[in-house]
Amino acid sequence: KSIALKFDKTFDFVSKDAVYGYAETMKKHNEALHNKTGKGNDFLGWVNLPSSISETELADYEATAKALQAKKIELFVVVGIGGSYLGAKAVVDALSDSFAQLKGGDKPLIVFAGQNISEDYLYELRELLKNKEYAMAVISKSGTTTEPALAFRLLKQDIEDKYGKEEAKSRIVAVTDASRGALRKLADTEGYKSYVISDDIGGRYSVLTPVGLLAIAVAGFNIRALVQGAVDMEKATGVDVPFEENLAAQYAAVRNELYKNGKLVEILVNYNPKLHFVAEWWKQLYGESEGKEGKGIFPASVDFTSDLHSMGQYIQEGERKLFETVISVASPDREVRIPTDPENLDGLNFLANKRVDEVNKMAELGTMIAHVDGGVPNMLIELPKLNEYYLGQMIYFFEKACGLSGYTLGVNPFDQPGVEAYKKNMFALLEKPGFEEETKAIKARL
Ligand code: PA5
């Protein structure tokens, strides 16, 4: 079984012929990705990544996860930002009990740090960690990113104070470049267990490397099934797969055709709040890959039906520059049936004996029809179930489609030069050594 993509509800806005007209272009771009002949071709390690993950690597991540779990840790702190955080967060949230943080359980909970510079967040996290058993992963490909480096400086001291330097070492895992960056030097000097992020895989394409897989394994999820899903999608979107069967090529074609026809914003929609961070991961993947040179679809997201009561009005009747891509999970894991109430004071007996999911699915269908009627084209990505295997398929599907889509747009989908602008100003304002000229210039503007 596979995830499915349906896009017939875009044909009121773009023609079917125009979409299928992308077949040749997509084939060419797919070849460029596989043959490494396109823009950003030194960052294409993700293309064949799933099928090249070895048994030894998987066993290694699992063994590290087991060794950490054996310390009876309650929390696993993952220090990282952007691509060094969102993939693990997306998968762990999608697979976890909605109330895991309150219910507890026999597997460690994953908490994050270094994904912001909030003083309150760091204070409150450090307070929490005082009374918990925990271990930590510090993840930074460049090894120099300010947010995680700052958080790790604080958390490293705390973990050493709590457990002593030697024991702390066995509770810290570093994931970074093989040789470059401050974190590599620190990890080697301290003697932490460390994993390498390969040079040719950018942060936002790195969830299926130790960047994502380690935390997912520590949380107790099946990384083999996740990787298998990605392996199967790697095959299903390969160069020899015709456009009619290649979901990634189809998705890339439809969204580019919509963009050409004035649909500038894509909203990723879910009807299951566990997918909230899948959308955050997706926003980074597409926003950072395509938003450049004055171009690119703006990736947005909503959680329905919650946000139908906030953003629903705009989507139905606001600027007609939107399209939606709905992630729908065919079968929920749990069953809840609506009871009969003889008094029927709430008037809900028309729903008696139905599953809650049936109501959710009718909300989904009704919304799709309403939004299409209101001028918002809709695509649907259907996952048979929310499990590791289909998440693995979905991750690779989105990655492949993003590469194809970026090439179709004519940009390099694997760089992010624009991210430097805020860093330069922040360093200038903080008077970082080496930024003396920038400091003078920015201060003159204040
Ligand atoms: O996709 C990317 O490359 C970025 O979002 C990075 O993941 C993010 O900036 C964090 O970088 P690093 O892992 O070097 O700390």
From TrEMBL:
GO biological process, one term: glucose 6-phosphate metabolic process
Organism listed in the record: Gaoshiqia sediminis
Pathway: Carbohydrate degradation; glycolysis; D-glyceraldehyde 3-phosphate and glycerone phosphate from D-glucose: step 2/4; Carbohydrate biosynthesis; gluconeogenesis
Compartments (UniProt record): Cytoplasm
InterPro entries: G6P_Isomerase (IPR001672), Phosphoglucose_isomerase_CS (IPR018189), SIS_dom_sf (IPR046348), SIS_PGI_1 (IPR035476), SIS_PGI_2 (IPR035482)
Catalytic site: E288 (proton donor), K423
Annotated family: Belongs to the GPI family.
Molecular functions (GO terms): carbohydrate derivative binding; glucose-6-phosphate isomerase activity; monosaccharide binding
A Pfam family matched in the record: PGI
Any one of the GO CC terms: cytosol
Protein name, as recorded: Glucose-6-phosphate isomerase
Function recorded in the entry: Catalyzes the reversible isomerization of glucose-6-phosphate to fructose-6-phosphate.
